[in-house]
Design a protein that fits this description.
Number of helices: 15
Number of domains: 1
Oligomer: single chain
Largest sheet: none
Distance between the termini: 20 Å
Shape: globular
Radius of gyration: 19 Å
CATH class: Mainly Alpha
Length: 390
C-alpha cells in the first residue's frame, strides 16, 4: 500500500481527489441549482442527463486526441475546460446557460477520465493495477465525502454563485498537479488518431463490448441513479440543502473506507465477483430507498448504498485496463468509456421520465430492478479478466 501511495500520489491520487471533489459536489449542486433558478423537477433530473450526454459525445474524440497528443496534454485541456465551465455556471444563472455549461462539463470530465485510464494503464503493472485503480477510486470517494458536505455548507452560508466559484478554483488547481507531476510521454506508436481506428477497435473487440461492456453499462446506470435519487429523495422529504449534503456524505464515508479492501479483493479473487456483488446490493438498496421518511432514515439508506458502491471501487476502470489492447488503445478506451457513460446517462434519463409519469418512488423501484437484472447478466455472460495480462 505505501509503495503504491508513494509512487502514484502526485500524478494520480491528488488530481483524482480534486476532480472528484468538484464532480461529486456538482451532482448535488446542479439539480438543486436548477430548482433554485425556477426549473421543474423533471428539468432538475435532466440536467445530470445533459452532463452525461456531454460525456458520451467526448469519449470517442478523447481516445483520438490521446493518440494524437498524448495523455498529459489531454488532461490539461480537460482540467482547463472544466474550470471555465463551472465559472460560466456561477456567472449566468439561466437555465439555457446552465444546460450548455453542464454539456461542456460532461465533455471535459469524460476527456479527463479517458486520459487518466490511458495513463494508468501505461504506468502500472497488471499485478498492481486493481490496487492502483481502487486507490484512484478511493480518492474519488474521498471527494464524495467532502464535495456534497462542502457544497451544502457553502450554499447555505454564501449562496450558489460563491459555491460554484469555489469549485471552479478547485478544478483549476488540477492543472498544477498535471503540469508538475504527470510525465510528458509521446503518443503510443501503435495508436492511430484517424477515425478508422475507432472502427477497428470496435470490430476487433466486439465480444468484449457486448459482454463486459454491458456489465459496465449496468453498474454505471445504478451508480449514477444512486447519486441523483439521494438528493431528490431528500428534497421530496423537505430537507434543507445542508441536511441532504450531510446524509450523502455519511454514505460516502462508508463508500470511501472500502476502496483499498475492494482493490485487494480484485487482485485476489477477480473482477467479476465484485461487479455482481455491487449490482445486487445497489439494486436492492435503491428499491428500499422509497421507505425513507426523514433525515435519519435517509442517512441509513445512504449508508447502505455507500456500502454497495464501495465494494466495487475502481472495478470498471480496472476491467477496461485489463482488456485494453496494445494496438488502438486510445480508441478502445474511448469506446469503453462511452459504454460506461451510456449507463451513467441512462439512469438520470430513466429517472426523469419515470418521475414525470409515475413519481419518484417508481423511479427507485425501476432502477433497482435494472441493477438486479444486470447482476444476472454478468453472472451468465461475462468472463473474468484478472489473469488476462498476467
Amino acid at each position: 500500500m505505501s509503495r503504491i501511495l508513494r509512487k502514484f500520489f502526485l500524478s494520480i491520487i491528488c488530481p483524482s481527489a480534486l476532480v472528484s471533489i468538484t464532480q461529486q459536489s456538482l451532482l448535488v449542486v446542479l439539480p438543486l441549482y436548477v430548482l433554485a433558478i425556477g426549473g421543474s423537477w423533471a428539468e432538475s433530473a435532466m440536467i445530470i442527463a445533459i452532463k452525461g450526454i456531454g460525456m458520451m459525445l467526448a469519449d470517442l474524440p478523447a481516445g483520438l486526441l490521446i493518440a494524437r497528443f498524448g495523455d498529459k496534454k489531454v488532461m490539461l485541456c480537460a482540467a482547463f475546460t472544466s474550470a471555465c465551465s463551472i465559472l460560466l455556471l456561477s456567472l449566468f444563472p439561466h437555465l439555457a446557460i446552465v444546460s450548455s455549461a453542464a454539456l461542456l462539463l460532461g465533455f471535459a470530465h469524460a476527456t479527463w477520465l479517458v486520459a487518466r485510464i490511458s495513463f494508468v494503464t501505461e504506468v502500472t503493472q497488471p499485478h498492481e493495477r486493481g490496487r492502483v485503480m481502487s486507490f484512484s477510486a478511493g480518492t474519488i470517494r474521498l471527494g464524495n465525502v467532502i464535495g456534497p458536505a462542502m457544497a451544502g455548507v457553502l450554499i447555505a452560508s454564501a449562496g450558489y454563485q460563491v459555491t460554484l466559484s469555489v469549485f471552479a478554483l478547485i478544478s483549476a488547481c488540477v492543472l498544477i498537479f498535471v503540469i508538475y507531476a504527470v510525465p510528458m510521454m509521446p503518443p503510443r506508436a501503435h495508436d492511430s488518431h484517424k477515425l478508422g481506428a475507432l472502427k477497428d477497435a470496435l470490430v476487433d473487440n466486439r465480444k468484449v463490448f457486448y459482454t463486459a461492456g454491458i456489465a459496465s453499462i449496468s453498474l454505471m446506470l445504478v451508480r449514477s441513479s444512486r447519486a441523483l435519487l439521494l438528493p431528490l429523495t431528500g428534497a421530496a422529504l423537505m430537507l434543507d440543502e445542508s441536511s441532504i449534503g450531510i446524509a450523502i456524505s455519511v454514505g460516502a464515508i462508508i463508500d470511501t473506507l472500502l476502496f483499498y479492501p475492494a482493490g485487494s479483493l480484485m487482485d485476489r479473487i477477480g473482477r467479476k465477483p465484485i461487479i455482481v456483488t455491487s449490482l445486487v446490493l445497489l439494486g436492492a438498496g435503491l428499491m428500499l430507498l422509497p421507505l425513507a421518511t426523514g433525515f435519519w432514515s435517509l442517512v441509513i439508506f445512504a449508508g447502505l448504498l455507500g456500502l454497495a458502491n464501495g465494494v466495487s471501487a475502481g472495478v470498471i476502470m480496472t476491467v477496461g485496463a485489463d482488456l485494453a489492447p496494445s494496438v488502438n488503445r486510445g480508441g478502445f478506451i474511448g469506446i469503453w468509456r462511452l459504454l460506461s457513460d451510456v449507463g451513467s446517462t441512462s439512469g438520470p434519463i430513466i429517472i426523469g421520465l419515470v418521475v414525470k409519469l409515475a413519481g419518484l418512488a417508481a423511479a427507485s423501484y425501476s432502477i433497482g430492478f435494472l441493477g438486479l437484472l444486470g447482476a444476472v447478466y454478468t453472472i451468465k455472460a461475462v468472463a473474468e479478466t484478472k489473469e488476462k495480462n498476467q
